[in-house]
Amino acid sequence: MLTTPLLLCGCATDHVLAPAREQSAELAQSAEVLSRERQWLDAYERHDVRLMEDILAPEFMITYPWGRAMDRAAVLAQIRAGGGPSGVRLRTEGSRVVVSGDGATVTGVLLMESPRGTRRNRYYDHWSRRAGKWQVVASTLSEAAR
Q1: Residue pLDDT, tens place only, 9-30
Q2: Does domain 3-143 have CATH number 3.10.450.50?
Q3: Left, alpha or beta for 84 (phi > 0: left; psi -120 to 50: alpha)?
Q4: Contact (CB, 8 A) for 55 and 137
């Protein structure tokens, strides 16, 4: 007689714990994506071509607030030439990650801090997990309200 209630209790526990396990996995994936996002900003700050090559997907495209678009090759060429942000500290705030399978979207505000002041841009980044590694596929920046 005790076996049946215990089995039912075990089944009920699985139904309760399954959403918690899924949420925990999603939080872990979100943390991985945010870690890669930070590595990407670090690669810009340090002009780290190797790290940038690892993070940018082959089809990567970025669109800046003033309308300029650059593909992966152009971004890497700029970094190799010492271009890009120099003496600028990059950080994000209000980041939100939505994971869906092997894709993730990150939105928030990018702050570019320099001796001349801080520039704020909204960002929308799309990431894809490939061979167990997150790569950024597309990024769009737009002016953020102050």
Answers
A1: 444 445 444 555 566 778 899 9
A2: yes
A3: left
A4: no
Rg over alpha carbons for the chain, rounded to the nearest Å, is: 20
Residue 61's contacts (CB-CB under 8 Å, 6 or more residues apart) are: 69, 70, 71, 72, 137, 138, 139
Q: How far apart are CA 49 and CA 82, in angstroms?
A: 10
Angle CA 92–69–32, to nearest 5: 35
Residue 58 has pLDDT above 90, yes or no: yes
Tokens representing 64?
């800046």
Gap between the Cα atoms of 139 and 123, Å rounded: 7
Rounded Cα distance between 27 and 10, Å, is 25
Nearest to 118 by CA among 72, 85, 84: 85
